[in-house]
Protein 1
Amino acid sequence: MKKIVLIAVALVALVSLSVLVYGIEARQAADVVSIRVSDALPVTDPHSQLWSKATEFQLPMGSQTIIAPVKPAPSVPYIQVRSLNNGTHIAFLITWADSTKNDRTVKIDEFRDGSAVLLGPVGEMAVLAMGTATIPVNVLHWKADWQADIDTGFQGVESAFPNFWVDMYPNVIGEPPYTLPGNFSDAAKLYLPGWKVGNSFSQPLKVTSVEENRARGFGSLATEQSQGAIGRGIWENGQWSVVIARQLHPSDNEDIQLISGEKYSTAFAIWDGASGDVGARKSITALLTLYVQ
Ligand code: HEM
């Protein structure tokens, strides 16, 4: 009897040790670890104390040199990334140095600052290039101009051209100057087709500064039908601090479902508006492993 108890105790010790080792190994093998907390995640607060519970990972940046328009050298040498999850949602805090705040894209030579998180299955190199036809990836893209639309109101043409004036607009309520979205009835929206058809870029009333996308290889990035990502970015003292968050298990089955205790592929991208970054012209990390604690 005593012998059986001893064997049982040894077995339990062995199992918990291997779980511990696996946990530590998985954490050690991962480039980014999303720390499990029981709190509500600070999805719109880059300065929350809760972020001190997350390990900071300093990630070197390279640049996209595979397809035109290429970026010869990264805008920033490093970014800092922290991640928290609470069993229902995952959040990333990305910080990087940027001496200028570029948060308007009205004029043709204006480009936004931005950052993105890519999520894909573990162990697939092709994931870095935004997935493949058979390996879809999720891309959560925070945009500084969407943030400005939320923080200070929609930045229309008049924000870049103060003398801009419209004498009349079909079906608009009231007198000029017209503002978006205030004066625009449904009928008037016909003359702002992007807004009318639901193009997320043309929405004057932004509810989130993070766009949820899916891609099956570069050139195929598309806005997801259901938008559930959230976040917030703050620029101060020459640095962006941006939170990007989404559900661990989005309702769309084609999305990457993040299971606690598992590993995934991830990568990060940064756009520097002052350098004219947009689309493919960006700084990117290498393909990384994310461990969701
Ligand atoms: C070698 C790697 C990569 C290549 C060759 C590449 C290429 C491209 C190309 C050609 C575009 C424009 C066409 C399109 O919208 O699909 C694009 C846009 C985009 N890519 Fe990538 N990409 C790479 C890695 C990444 C990574 C790692 C991320 C995210 C972490 C990312 C996120 C995005 C986003 C959000 C856009 C839209 C940007 C915008 O609207 O300005 N890409 N990429």
Note: The chain has a mean pLDDT of 91.
Protein 2
Amino acid sequence: MTKETRAPRFSIHTLGCKVNQYDSERIRTRLLQRGFESLGEDDNSSPDVIVVNTCSVTSESDRKGRQLIRKMIRRHPEARVMVTGCYAERKPLEIGSIEGVDEIVAIQDQDAWAARLAEELGWGCADQSHLWTPGAGIEIFQEHTRAFIKIQDGCDLKCTFCSIPASRGVARSRPVDEILDEARDMIDRGYPELVLCGICIGHYGRGLDFGLPDLILRLNALPGVKRIRVSSLEPQDVDDELLRVMADSEAACPHLHLPIQSGSNRILRRMKRPYKIESFFETIEKARRMLPDFEVSTDIMVGFPDETEDDFEQTLQAVRISRFNKVHSFPFSVRDEAPAARMTNHLPPELIKSRRIELDRVARETADVVKSSYIGRTLRVLCETRDEDRVTGYTENYLRAEFPANESVQRGGEVTVRVESVDKGRLIARPV
Ligand code: SF4
């Protein structure tokens, strides 16, 4: 079959957060709606079109983005290469200077690009208006057991280390009916877990008379909903109403990812983070009182300008006190449009590296104590990966578990297991 008569093939390669992964699935849905053929990331057939969706949270993300773009161009020299995402938003000239990049598309233009591409390739029906309604969401979450539902984009906060507002714009919320339609669709397609994601989802509905707690209540009322997971949430956005709604909503998972960033109030002030460490501790203690088996994970940045040994010690202490089940550690990274780039007393890279190693060690130790407290308990696990003899997945409170496979265990299914031990940060369990 000649190239002209077969459906154009595309592949999408995504870096970064759940919002980026959601945006990539929306691009995939748009192209599939036009009859394009989707290739998996590791598919060997040659794509006609390659999409690289970039992240720019640190300079390391930028480096990985350039590396991935070059790799795709080397591997598929004939393909048309489109780059989008936060790095493309921040540094279009830098991306454009990579030989082989055909186009750079702004995040908000991703849908329009899909329509334009089909026209340029003379593929799909001329009148595309009926293919989807503006704002319509995704129809598939390729290679995922859990469906990410984007409810919000952009951010109005001004953390001094962050470039995301520059690449994602001001905070804006998706209409609730669109979210409910998408959620119903994902439930009907058999996705057992809906993960609510955005850039600053605590601001969902800000300025409207409808907030995140209301949305969770509406989602919890949907027929067939099993699990609703709130992905990352700013600590200051966790209030009594949200905790009460999570406690009353059977499908709401008792877990929150709350980026603390530092345990030192002095550094939190320099980061322009709108909370104190004491209020953070109060929030998670309240959550533990209101939500049985509540667990919390976090992001911590090490090496912020002028971070002293004492500031760092306070961060390690905060990890021990908070009993996180997971800490994602990040080295401070200069983002030239972020105020921290112009602060004095930037720390030497080797000091940042050694502090990160120490933080990861304390975080692992603390998390193992948290996980060991579940030995002997029975928990529900959503099966995500399965090979010959082992299955892995997440509990409702976001603990990774592993157990022996048996014929009744399917990917996407939920299994009750008894925890027997902890190994390499995982709960080692057995189905009961
Ligand atoms: S809350 Fe702060 S760190 Fe998060 S996206 Fe907004 S500015 Fe960046």
Note: The radius of gyration is 22 Å.
